[in-house]
RNA sequence: GCGAGAGUGGCGGAAUUGGUAGACGCGCCAGAUUUAGGAUCUGGUGUCUUGUGGCGUGGGGGUUCGAGUCCCCCCUCUCGCACCA
């Protein structure tokens, strides 16, 4: 055996072994319990980055650990393969998006395999495969039948550069999240999924998702934004019209002094008086030129204009002037707000600006506010005043009383409002799933009949990046006969948002080749839910909420039984690295810096802050280079050891070196002892041997098992194996029983195998085993080996450590107290004082409480 | 502003139920080996005093025999949401 650890000599060998033996193929014909482990699948950009390595290394530990524990593990991998980068590449290099994507997949597959991940590659698919997206089209047709997919005209965020619609969450600081171009408003006919129908279920089930991080659940609840309130109708003075408002504060109804409408409100036309028309139209024009993002930015100056009309407060008959205000949004609530300046800060500022009256209707207890002296809105609790029959009622109570009073008179009702909007899924793009719809002049919108599916994405397109989607110009694709009347018709040229593909891929992994339907229900019901899902926190709302929604839709379509896709969710932290900057050359890649100097100009390099690895800051480490230098096992080990999975990981080259050295250390631990432990084959009699090393071995097995199983504390698991390795190096090899030493060394190899599988397989073989390390299963600790006859206890005096004593493990308290007081340094601190009491914590410490 | 999380040596991080703060690793220091360097092995490493002692987990209070951990107040940072009516 070579006495030096050379990763390239072992890694390819074992990757080949796993492939040939189909070691990670999932199987449903088994008595074993199922375990479905999934990491978020990657976009095939062509190169893996350290974020992938970390995500997949974490998942692989869990997959291998569960397999060793005897579970039937499903651990699939595939590609989120539709999307804009493929089209951008086509524009830049003239390569077809399909060709580009499949070539990237081939190259990334090679890179992933080099990491030694335990995937069942037989289940691999890409979402751009016809055999995947055809089923998505069928799901759409079913949703359309159920009224869950519908079309409507809406104002959308539009990116001129990408010539496409962006969801609100795809707009960052008023710019496109992909190309950073300024986003504008545009009116378009769009397909929507009725996610709002599931708003309550999506919200309520967040309380049952015990295996999800609280942070993610909070973000989802926040996103759904359910609020209870009251709808109130205000009659418009002198007309039959009514303005409907939504408010969460019906208790402040009598404090309303004016009304604010969204400038887009449909009633505006009828409300504007001739005197005000010029002013109002100018205002509407001004607001329409601001984009939606600015409208909701919070920095926006509050502006408004009087319409000339008045409405009537249904409770006290007061007349309120109707304003338009730029901060009122048409798509939240009813697009109209009753303004209560005394008790709402925003209304307060607006009222002061336009010199509108302020009327206090809630008095906090022990205070008497007046409208004139108020410096900010009073939003707290109190008793009602100036509210007629409701005076003196605590405001919380008044909310319901006023609402039911209005309800009885047909002027209002208790309602629920959501922030969540329906999901717009139309994208004016080529590289996506075609939406299976046909537009006929006679029959209108006609879904493509099931028998005509799939609507295949044509490959003969020219992608120039100009003039919108290539599909919209592709005559062969567009031209079709109406399936209903046979007249010439036109195909929908929009494709789905790529979040649609990632909303059900986890279910398709259960039956990737199934050719009869989107899902083989038997297989899907066997494997779902995903027992553990692992991915980045950046998907906390969009992807995870859409996937939850789709699961409920699939359930209601009778395709699966489960209601939730992911039982447990782990959101891993980002991979960060220090940035480096040269005055002349800007941000520098790590390899452009030597001894703190820029390699191009020799100037000293300034260290920037530690940030998420990104190409723009050049603080990246290329996994391929890392693996070439140290091997996959070192890359994995560092990713797992440097921080717990959910926290950000700070990249540190010296830390990587340390991990590489540790692997060399275990290599030598086997190599240097191979001859010696050859005499220790018989491990039957180990139970009778009292040995510190044996105790340490079993303590380590226990610790690693508990750290990995459910807790995912891989860093501490690895640390404890390091301790065991230190103990192996530290023991006296002339005295130690060879069988004990063998057990310790074998345990190190077995315990580390989920983390660094290649080196462990190799060492396991060299220890004399054939057929792979998985055959042996996960080691089990011997509880008896953990028992010690003598324990060391800390002795405290008044909570401060003053000495240590060694006593028999089964000593009773009287004996412990005597031994503690007899300890010389303890005795010194106790001397001359009165012992009040002595607290004995078994196995831990003794605390002598003294006074005087 | 609202919501969530975090703050521990020179650094990454341990401490699972309130019970020896700093496991493990990096870095640094010393020794062994080596022609030398590297690699490897061994030991040391919170801090102030160096006396068998004091101080120490962002700051201040509290509960307790005992607090990094529980409670109250404050500071800082990170993430998410935000004219949401």
N- to C-terminal distance: 69 Å
Query: What average pLDDT do the residues reach?
Result: 89
- What's the story with the biggest beta sheet? 7 strands, mixed
Uncertain segments are: none
Class by alpha and beta content:
alpha+beta
Radius of gyration: 34 Å
Helix content: 25-40%
How many DSSP H or I helices? 26
Categorize the overall geometry.
Answer: globular
Number of strands: 35
Strand content: 15-25%
Question: How does this structure look, described?
Answer:
There is one protein chain. This protein is an alpha+beta fold and 852 residues long. It is 34% helix and 20% strand. The protein contains 26 helices and 35 strands. Strands 8, 9, 10, 11, 12, 13 and 16 form a 7-stranded mixed sheet that branches. The radius of gyration is 34 Å and the shape is globular. The mean pLDDT is 89. It binds one RNA strand of 85 nucleotides through helix 7, strand 9, strand 13, helix 11 and strand 31.
């Amino acid at each position: 055996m070579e006495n030096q650890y050379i990763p390239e000599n072992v890694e390819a060998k074992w990757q080949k072994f796993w492939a040939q033996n189909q070691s990670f193929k999932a199987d449903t014909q088994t008595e074993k319990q199922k375990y479905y482990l999934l990491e978020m699948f990657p976009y095939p950009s062509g190169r893996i980055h350290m974020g992938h390595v970390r995500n997949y290394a974490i998942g692989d530990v869990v997959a291998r650990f569960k397999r060793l524990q005897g579970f039937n593990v499903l651990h699939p991998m595939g590609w989120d393969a539709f999307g804009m980068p493929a089209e951008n590449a086509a524009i830049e290099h003239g390569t077809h998006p399909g060709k580009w994507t499949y070539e990237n997949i081939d190259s990334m597959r090679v890179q992933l395999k080099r990491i030694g991940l335990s995937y069942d590659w037989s289940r691999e698919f890409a979402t751009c495969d016809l055999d995947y997206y055809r089923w998505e089209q069928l799901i759409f047709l079913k949703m359309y039948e159920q009224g869950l997919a519908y079309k409507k005209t809406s104002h959308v965020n539009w990116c001129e550069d990408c010539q496409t619609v962006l969801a609100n969450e795809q707009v960052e600081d008023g710019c496109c999240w992909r190309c950073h171009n300024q986003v504008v408003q545009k009116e378009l006919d769009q397909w929507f999924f009725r996610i709002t129908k599931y708003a309550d279920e999506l919200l309520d089930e967040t309380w049952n998702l015990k295996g999800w991080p609280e942070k993610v659940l909070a973000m989802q609840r926040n996103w759904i934004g359910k609020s209870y309130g009251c709808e109130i109708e205000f009659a418009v003075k002198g007309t039959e019209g009514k303005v409907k408002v939504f408010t969460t504060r019906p208790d402040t109804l009598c404090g309303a002094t004016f009304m604010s409408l969204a400038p887009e409100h449909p009633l505006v036309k009828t409300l504007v008086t001739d005197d005000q028309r010029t002013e109002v139209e100018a205002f509407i024009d001004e607001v329409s030129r601001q984009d939606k993002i600015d409208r909701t930015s919070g920095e926006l100056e509050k502006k408004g204009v009087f319409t000339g009309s008045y409405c009537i407060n249904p409770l006290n008959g007061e007349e309120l002037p109707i304003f338009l205000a730029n901060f009122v949004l048409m798509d939240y609530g009813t697009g109209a707000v009753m303004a209560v300046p005394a008790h709402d800060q925003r209304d307060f500022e607006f009222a002061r600006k336009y010199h509108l009256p302020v009327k206090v209707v809630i008095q906090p207890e022990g205070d008497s506010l007046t409208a004139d002296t108020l410096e900010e809105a009073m939003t707290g609790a109190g008793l009602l005043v100036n509210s007629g029959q409701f005076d003196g009622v605590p405001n919380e109570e008044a909310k319901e009383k006023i609402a039911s009073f209005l309800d009885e008179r047909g002027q209002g009702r208790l309602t629920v409002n959501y922030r969540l909007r329906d999901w717009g899924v139309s994208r004016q793009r080529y590289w996506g799933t075609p939406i299976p719809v046909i537009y006929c002049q006679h029959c209108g919108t006609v879904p493509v009949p099931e028998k005509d599916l799939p609507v295949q994405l044509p490959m003969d397109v020219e992608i120039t990046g100009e003039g919108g989607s290539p599909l919209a110009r592709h005559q062969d694709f567009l031209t079709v006969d109406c399936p209903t009347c046979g007249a010439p018709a036109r195909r929908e040229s929009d494709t789905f948002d790529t979040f649609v593909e990632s909303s059900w891929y986890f279910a398709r992994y259960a039956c990737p080749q199934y050719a009869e339907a989107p899902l083989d229900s038997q297989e899907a019901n066997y494997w779902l839910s995903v027992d553990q899902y692992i991915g980045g926190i950046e998907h906390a709302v969009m992807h995870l909420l859409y996937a939850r929604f789709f699961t409920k839709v699939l359930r209601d379509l009778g395709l699966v039984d489960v209601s939730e896709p992911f039982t447990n969710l782990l959101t891993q932290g980002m991979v960060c690295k220090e940035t480096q900057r040269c005055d002349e050359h800007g941000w520098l890649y790590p390899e452009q810096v030597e001894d703190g100097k820029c390699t191009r100009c020799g100037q000293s390099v300034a260290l920037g802050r530690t940030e998420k690895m990104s190409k723009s800051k050049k603080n990246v480490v290329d996994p391929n280079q890392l693996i070439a230098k140290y091997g996959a096992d070192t890359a994995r080990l560092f990713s797992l050891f440097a921080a717990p999975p959910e926290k950000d990981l700070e990249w540190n080259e010296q830390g990587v070196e340390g991990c590489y050295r540790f692997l060399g250390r275990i290599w030598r631990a086997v190599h240097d002892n191979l001859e010696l432990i050859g005499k220790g084959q018989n491990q039957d009699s180990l139970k009778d041997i009292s040995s510190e090393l044996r105790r340490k071995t079993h303590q380590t097995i226990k610790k690693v098992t508990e750290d990995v199983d459910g807790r995912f504390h891989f860093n501490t698991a690895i640390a404890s194996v390091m301790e065991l390795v230190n103990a192996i190096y530290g023991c006296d090899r002339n005295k130690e029983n060879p069988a004990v030493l063998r057990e310790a060394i074998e345990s190190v190899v077995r315990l580390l195998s989920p983390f660094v599988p290649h080196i462990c397989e190799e060492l396991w073989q060299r220890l004399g085993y054939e057929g792979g390390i998985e055959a042996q299963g996960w080691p089990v600790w011997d509880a008896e080996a953990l028992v010690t006859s003598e324990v060391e206890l800390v002795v405290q005096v008044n909570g401060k450590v003053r000495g240590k004593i060694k006593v028999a493990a089964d000593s009773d308290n009287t004996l412990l107290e005597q031994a503690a007081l007899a300890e010389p340094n303890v005795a010194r601190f106790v001397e001359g004082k009165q012992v009040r009491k002595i607290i004995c914590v078994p196995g831990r410490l003794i605390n002598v409480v003294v006074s005087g």
